[in-house]
């Protein structure tokens, strides 16, 4: 009984293998795959002797910019959340409030991204200091990180207040 079912299945499987697969890309190695890879130039070693760390500036400004964008989008989200307070999930007011919260989350993207950049910079600098490649600079990065962290924490608190007003699905 089993050979009767097995033979037709095997024949069908083998017929699929025998057909030509035209239109599918070749798995052969392409010319670009064998080309040499250009290496990035190493970053110069910096010591934090004079002035602020130049790597902190862009992230610090982005954090402040994200804070300003969040503050600008806040009134609309606050108004929508107040209007949707007590509304049922999926009601028109609730959906409008969720849309406004989404816009508010998007407005804070620069702040969160700046905090992540400063976190990475802090770890990289800490590692470089411990390896003896650079000296100092951790305090400046930590100060910039603290400023941006305060902005992001304030945004988180304000978002939690808005989300607390809305019914959860």
UniProtKB/TrEMBL annotation:
Q: Where is this region: Disordered?
A: 39-64
Looking up PROSITE patterns in the UniProt record yields: PROKAR_LIPOPROTEIN
Q: What is this protein called?
A: Lipoprotein
